User: Fold these one by one.
Assistant:
Number 1:
Amino acid sequence: MQRYYGQLYRKIFIAQNHKIVEELAQNFQKGLMQNIYRKEVVPRVYAKLFLELQNSIKTGLELNKEVDAQYSFADIHSDIFIRGILSSKGLEKYKQLIQDK
């Protein structure tokens, strides 16, 4: 789609990213109110950062080749990012979710 309908692709990509940022920001805000995330988390900034990093991973195919087949680079990035923004309460909940998986 990007190759043949570049302008349409960009419009869809921008709209999709805007929606994802809004949803992530709402999640971060909710987590802040529940003391799951550290107080320093700025919801919209962290949402945009997370999305930009995820998008860059999609285009970084060389990185994906270097990661063990059972893990995706995006999953590893998500885990590192999430652990970095969690409060101690949030980290305990996160560890429990992983164990229950």
Number 2:
Amino acid sequence: MKLKLRGHHLLCLQGFQGYGYDEDFVENMCEINRLRKLEDTSIKVVNSPDDICKACPNLVDNKCIDDKNNEKIIAMDNVVLSKIDSDKTYNSVDLFNEISQIFNTLESVEESCLNCSWWEQCLFVKKLENNR
């Protein structure tokens, strides 16, 4: 299986616990979260709409809601992309192991995640808070 994922979604998937914008979004996110844990899944990392976004009700004209919000989302992606080789297609398990090593403190995720509307519910953030 080959997935296309936004940079910031590499963090989101690690904190996902079933919340979402609507039922279709949650179902899609659950499936992608399942697939990303399989050894035979590969991932291309992007800073544009991906396999998660395709089920998001906020995706309008291939943008996240509006220009301002879309710019914010791309900036979140670019923080993650700046830490990895974005030209590479990754083995999913290897990529998530690498991301976990890079983003392993609250400080390391603040630039990409601090203004996220899911910050309070995110299990990834909670885990980092507990590691302090």
